[in-house]
Amino acid sequence: MTTTIRPELPADVEAIEGVTRRAFLSHPYSRQTEQFVIRALRAADALSVSLVAEDAGRVVGHIALSPVTISDASAGWYGLGPIAVEPELQGRGIGRALMESGLVELRKLGANGCVLVGDPALYMRFGFTNNPALTVEGVPPQFSLALGLGSSSARGDVRFHEAYQATG
């Protein structure tokens, strides 16, 4: 299996939604709305980084990164998610490749940092940590993770784009 990571193309939209839907179908903490979030981010022109993993011409994974706002007015921070890999291909390094490529793209944008809500055991291996200075309303602190990418730190409440409320 040779996987290529590349920016999404307009022709990938349907495949991205399918991969995302299947990846989160049985996820215990999902409301199964992740594909709608991506669609809403794209429609709002808030999808700053959108990469696909492609194998033999088939989209098998996707990562989305979009700007977040922080109550201290820190600029250059992004939210990661959703990230999805076809269920039968999970555990083969595709998610890792998407994460690493996504972080490279954020650095190219001059990002100061990235935040996400997720499993610490999964994301700490990429340098994300629990940062008590950054909180996400309604999210237990252990699942709110951040990674500094620049010289500027942030402190306050993190707000993901309103597209994260999309349900259809």
Description:
With 168 residues, this protein is of the alpha+beta class. The protein contains 4 helices and 10 strands. The strands form 2 sheets. It has a 7-stranded mixed beta sheet with strand order 1-2-3-5-6-9-7, with helices on both faces. Strands 4-10-8 form a 3-stranded mixed beta sheet, with no helix packed on it. Strand 5, helix 3 and strand 6 (113-117) form a beta-alpha-beta unit. The longest helix has 15 residues, at 94-108. The model has no long low-confidence stretch (mean pLDDT 95).
What average pLDDT do the residues reach?
95
Largest sheet, if any? Answer: 7 strands, mixed
* Anisotropy-based shape: globular
Low-confidence stretches: none
Radius of gyration: 15 Å
Query: How do the SSEs run, as a string of H and E?
Result: EHHEEEEHEHEEEE
Strand content: 25-35%
Strand order of the largest sheet: 1-2-3-5-6-9-7
Helical content class: 10-25%
The total strand number stands at 10
Span from first to last CA? 34 Å
Number of helices: 4
